[in-house]
Specification:
Strand content of chain B: 25-35%
CATH superfamily of one domain in chain A: P-loop containing nucleotide triphosphate hydrolases
Helix content of chain B: 10-25%
Structural class of chain B: alpha/beta
CATH class of one domain in chain A: Alpha Beta
Order of helices and strands of chain A: EEEHEEHEEHHHEHEHEHEEHH
Largest interface: A-B, 37 and 28 residues
Largest sheet of chain A: 6 strands, mixed
Strand order of the largest sheet of chain A: 6-9-10-3-11-12
Oligomer: heterodimer
CATH architecture of one domain in chain A: 3-Layer(aba) Sandwich
Strand content of chain A: 25-35%
Distance between the termini of chain B: 26 Å
Amino acid sequence: MSLLEIKNLTAKLAEEDKQILNGLNLTVEKGQVAAIMGPNGSGKSTLSYVLAGREDYEVTNGEALLDGENILELSPDERAAKGLFLAFQYPIEIPGVGQMTFLKAALNAQRRKNGLDDMPTPEFMKLVNGRAKELGISQDMLRRSVNVGFSGGEKKRNEILQMALLQPKLAILDETDSGLDIDALKIVADGVNAMRSPDRGFVVITHYQRLLDYIKPDVVHVLSAGRIIKTGGPELALELEAKGYADIVGKAA
Amino acid sequence: MPAVQETVEQVRAIDVDQYKYGFSTDIEMELAPKGLSEDIVRYISARKNEPAWMLEWRLDAYRRWLTMREPDWARVDYPQIDFQDMYYYAAPKSNAAPKSLDEIDPAILETYKKLGIPLREQEILAGVAPENRIAVDAVFDSVSVVTTFKEELKKSGVIFSSISEALHEHPELVRKYIGSVVPTTDNYYATLNAAVFSDGSFVYIPPGVRCPMELSTYFRINEQKTGQFERTLIIADKGSYVSYLEGCTAPMRDENQLHAAVVELIAHDDAEIKYSTVQNWYPGDSQGKGGIYNFVTKRGDCRGARSKISWTQVETGSAITWKYPSCILRGDDSQGEFYSIAVSNGAQQVDSGTKMIHLGKNTRSRIISKGISAGRSQNTYRGLVSAHRRATNAKNFTNCDSLLIGNACGAHTVPYIESKTASAVFEHEATTSKVSEDQMFYCMQRGLTQEEAIALIVNGFVKDVLQQLPMEFMVEAQKLIAISLEGSVG
């Protein structure tokens, strides 16, 4: 069974008529890193939001199976507890809520949904401190409110920290490379690579080939006008980098 | 923070619209005849065996009240109150004059136990370190049923009793201070209270004494069609310190019940009073039926130099809240503080804030107000900061933040700032924000349910104020806020 199987998915913004996803088909296997590339407005972010269950979007047709179960009827928190994680392109600030409070609340909320007891605080502290160190996240950052006053790079590293704590089955990284300098990009990529495992899948959404130099994809999909129009190996990303999207998009249309 | 988890469990454990303290206690009560008249004022005074001057004081207030008009400037809306259709005195029959806890009706002890307020000292003592003990004055409808730890407090000279008892044991103190901060002529509800107040707490901290434990009063309205009019008087003599907590609940009833209290605080030279309230009166149902009208006058007088009075309030209950805990900064270098969290949901209406009246030199005040509106509620902050001509170098910092949840509620901020001295520095900051869909989605994507997400975001919003509460109340307040906001989205 595939980890993620999206069949003929169509979706639109709830308040508008225009379809953004138009019969999208996509399969991600366990252990696979699938890159999704595409021009602006092709539906990359919409795909990540629809999978994560954002309310502003309405699924008009199709299904998305995570481990064989259609997740499109589930609330966002239920999807999260089933192992779906979205690293946000623009992580959200929550003033007054300490990082540790947030991380613990999230971890234990998922554990409880999966029939586990809350993680004891000492174990939790050890876990967070360990992961934070690997990602170069300072104690000071852990003491601040969630994403408040963080630089772009800090926010992205923080997303990876959350992913490392929550240990999802499927992680969707939505333009995680945007706004990162090369050093930060390396740290983030190392964090992701450290989590690659035969049971876990990644969907890496990006505009640029650059990120894929550091996170080597197994497969590259090209998204245009709400559908996957081409699939290939890592060399496809290099080809796109060299020739731009116009060529492929033109042929598909 | 484990408190967030507790909040969440608490929320999960109960149904929407369920007010946890809504039960009533079935015991025999002695009621005064219904309605209000000079005879009722005399009846209350006689029941309490009060000295003649107290009766005269009450009657003066009553006569004055007859000439006054109900205020209508607050941003609240309710049908005219029929002051003749209510009882002004309700006391448990068995409570003639209990000498010890053993003489109190077990139903009352059980009520407080259910509310989480154990009154038996040995129960409180079990497993509690001495510095964490809290002395409680329990007020049930119109009377104080018991005050705990009185003997122990007496050793350090602290007087903590019901105000009725204080009138007999320390009449000179009561007479000297009562009405000296909130005069009988002050306002419609305070004047009514002066006429018919039935009980309340009295605290006196002698010079130089740091009160060895937290003091608290727990107010419970039980009887139907009964108003609660209590009066609290706290005096901190020179160089003393006291921290005082107040909690309140009432059964769920279809009718509206009136709670018109007066609280007077007096801080002499170098004294400090910290007064915290967790107000959880029954707020009415989601359609606005029933609930308490909480029309309260609270005022502190920083009478002495370098004195300090600090108000902290967490307001989650009541159908209508109308209260402005204030500080008169009379002594030079005195300080006033007001920290407030006001949560409104359903059809609740809140008009609350503070007054900081700077009279002395170098007086300082600080106001941090966090209003959270959900459902169809209306939440108004109304505040006055003023500096008298002689209040040179007066300083105030005000921060009013409002948070909106959903599209049907309202938040309003009405600050009044008056300065008659050029050397005063008054700062005012205000923000209004909404719990954003982005924040909700972000939290839920990490595994939190909608209600867990709201609780987390709101607890973050009010953190600055929660930190001002005594430790035990902080956790309690967090839970309360989460419960009050149940069903506010979706």
